[in-house]
Amino acid sequence: MKLLIKQRVFSWTDSYDVYDEEENVKYFVKAELLALGHQLHVYDAGHREIGKISQHLFSLLPAFDIEVNGVSKGSIQKKFTFLHPQYEVDYNGWRVEGDFLGWDYEVLQGCSAVMHISKEVLHWGDTYVLDFVNPADELLGLMLVIAIDAANCNEQS
After folding, report:
1. Which of 134, 124, 84 is nearest to 104 (CA)?
2. In what order do the strands lie in the sheet with 104-109?
3. How wide is the angle at C-alpha 57 spanned by C-alphas 4 and 59, nearest 5°?
4. What is the DSSP code (8-state) at residue 120?
5. Is 152 or 113 the better-scoring residue by pLDDT?
6. pTM, whole model, 2 decimals?
């Protein structure tokens, strides 16, 4: 099962549309800029908020808490490295490995793959493909990918 995340190009804040394999809008993401950081809100196709990603206010490196349906699910923090980005992930028992700069990485639980994330080239705006092993991991996987993107964007800005 796959999801496609497309960044809205002409938007004042980080906004994304998320499509299923048949190119139906399944979720959308909208950023809220706050005085001391930002939050990303994830909505389903019916415009109901189903998740929130909140930046830690007083953290040296980008760090975010992930909430799904009002319940804290974990956090992600960028590690200090010189060459390749790495993350400390405390989220659903998952770990993340791969090339974060090239947006080609795996999410694993133990020795088993949960999903593969890749960036598609030749698109207007950033476009990512999430390929899930188990469709039940879809929402949690989507939230993790959005948090990683926020950590990358936060450090670049």
Report:
1. 84
2. 87-91, 71-78, 63-68, 49-55, 37-44, 25-34, 15-19, 2-7, 127-132, 112-119, 104-109, 95-99
3. 90
4. P
5. 113
6. 0.87
